[in-house]
Write the structure tokens for this entry.
Amino acid sequence: MLPRIINLILGVWLMAAPAVLEYAGAARTNDRIAGPLAASCALIAAWEITRALRMVNAMIGIWLLIAPWLVAFSGINVANSTLVGFLLLGCALTRGRIRHSFGGGWKSLWESRRRRSQTNAE
Amino acid sequence: MRNGSIPPGWSYNPSRCIERLILVLLALAGFGIALYLSLYQWAVFSTVWEPFFGAGSQNVLHSQLLHALPVPDSALGALGYLIEAVLGGAGGNERWRAQPWLVIFYGLTVASLALVSILLVIFQSAFLNAWCTLCLASAAISINLVGPVMDEVLAGLQHIKRESALGDSLWRAFWGLKPNVAANH
């Protein structure tokens, strides 16, 4: 749960950062697209059944790490984007505890029937 | 009988009425917010409640995109929330296998409303550079509904797959038309 809460806060921070740190242009647009996406995915991934959405945040984290060089951020944006990207990626890669079982989960839908009954028996 | 309401291989029943009650209340809260915003967009109210962002709500709610359709976007949102509340409340504890179609339509409604909400938040923050507190609250509700709803959807899909593997048609399983429900157990 904690990694999802941290990523939710990071997403909200990305939305607020352009106003707080006073930057505009491409960096602002970038963060205000990445922010809502990251916060939403963190919120949805808080539930075990949709935990897989943390991988979207892993991709957003990687994007934030490379974006400063691709989109030519400057000064404080580089530091902010790199730090947030690093934390976002780290938390997203933490799977967290899965307490419930879901009859083989989503992948059971495209497994053959025999394999699924094996998974259920385990 | 009580045991039979838990899907095979699951540790709990995703369709429990008590859990769905909370989701229905959340959807009704979303409906209330969206209805209020649509009444403002229809100029029934001349001002809109905005505690944090000054003229942000006005800028967002009067933006061109949100009036691109014949009805304001929040009116569609209100309708969506109402459908969510009805689909969330309908059916009993075993609806993941009694009415798979209901569960799947519910999941599709929740997912599409959440997707539109995310896009609208991106639109207002990235392109309008303005914020609307109630729009964000409404978006938070619809995004927050996705996680707790998808377990039921998975149970419904697994049920359909199981039934069709037993020789029933996908179509009949989807509409919950299987006559011998107790045969699996």
